[in-house]
Please model this.
Amino acid sequence: MSRKLAFTKMHGAGNDFVVLDGIKGSLPALESLAQRLGDRHFGIGFDQLLVVRPSRTADFRMEIYNADGSQVEMCANGIRCFFQYLREAGHTRLDELRVETLSGVVVPRWAGPGRVSVEMGPPILEPAKIPTRLGDPAGAGPVLDARLDLDGRSLSVNCLSMGNPHCVVYVDDVDTTAVETLGPALERHDAFPNRVNVEFVQLVSRAHLRQRTWERGAGETLACGSGACASVVASILRGVTDARVRVELRGGDLDIDWAGGSTSVFMTGPAATVFTGTIELEGS
Model:
């Protein structure tokens, strides 16, 4: 026996997703399904799998799985695509929604054709809540310019959470940075008990950053929205950028705004549907 599973392929600034609709029908076990569908040679290929669910505490619930089958708390590029999908699928006509995630309720808003703005909530700076073993474990943070030993090399890192953990490393040139070796080594460093997303950031001006991201469970991606937010928050806290910053990613640009303190971070960027289709699931 086999059945066909409908899917939608989307991307937000090159960070690509497959969306499955758990409201329209039942879904198989998602950890193994994510590994199969996420394979870029034998499946559909994606950075993350997004699953639409009903919610008891918000308008909808978004589940997120990496291509290795691990579930994660939040994906900022993903929630823009999630919002766009809900409108295109006819689940809502609202211009603003409350979406339940593992990191809490996030609010995406329509920002014009093909663009979505997301209220990400305030950054989490306490080391224990990021989580990281750097800084004072019982302190309030932030963890800025902390020294981290990596295979005998000392790095200066900045740590915070945007609903998922981030490690921001400033570099002279993102194009020549060894992301493929430094990224996985930092992702699984003992300083990060839940692993970590790693942002390599080049300061261009007080209103412009360039960024490459190594995402835990996914590898290098063309864009990371929560990572862009983390990079801007770290830059503002370090006093090197203003409150509104354009983050240039390999897949496109994101606009990030943060007024500081306990205020929310706002991110605006693109969301696009690439194609729809069905895939056959054997043995289901």
